[in-house]
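Notes, p. 3: input format for complexes.
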Amino acid sequence: MTIVIGVLALQGAFIEHVRHVERCIVENKDQYNEKLSVITVRDKDQLAGCNALVIPGGESTSMSLIAQRTGFYSDLYNFVHDPKKTIWGTCAGLIFLSQQLSNEAKLVKTLDLLKVKVKRNAFGRQAQSFTQTYDFSSFIPNCNDFPATFIRAPVIEKILDPEEVQVLCKLEEKDNSGQGLIVAAKQNDNILVTSFHPELAETDIRFHDWFIKEFVLKNFNRYK
Ligand SMILES: NC(=O)CC[C@H](N)C(=O)O
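Output follows (224 residues plus glutamine):
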């Protein structure tokens, strides 16, 4: 059986995710105990064949409107709410998956999955976008120098259900309440979200490799 990783391709930086997953499949296939493939997803038939879905960066308002106007929203909603499926939302994908938005919420019908409140454009506009090397070794072994790119990025302002949602990474920078900015989290063991774009780390596939091993393969084996 082949495990299929879908990358939602309604809008945004989906091709970069496809390329990173393809590189993982080629370079690390001996470390994966299953055959894997990656496809772009634009409709319910393509989605139906997936075990996992990556929702890329872009504009969450556009993603949401396209999904609604093409009649694809309910298929996406049902897919992401299935615990047998593995989900990763990056940046706009994090916003699209979240239950609550604290700003610019009126046009986004989210997928109401992630039990968090999110602030859009938390670092400011495009001009405030940046790339910085971070130590993620607290959750990705030996990954202490990952180049994380933030582009008009959101942050998680509040964890609505600490039982289900675990913070993976908080930046040093503080928000108005004095807490570090939450930029990576997981819900249960099948949903990952990041404010930043590992797919834009041009030569570095460690984050995607970790997602495949820790989320896709583990969740697949959980329901095998
Ligand atoms: N790089 C991104 O995905 C930006 C997200 C975008 N600012 C939004 O609010 O949807």
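DSSP finds six helices and twelve strands in the chain.
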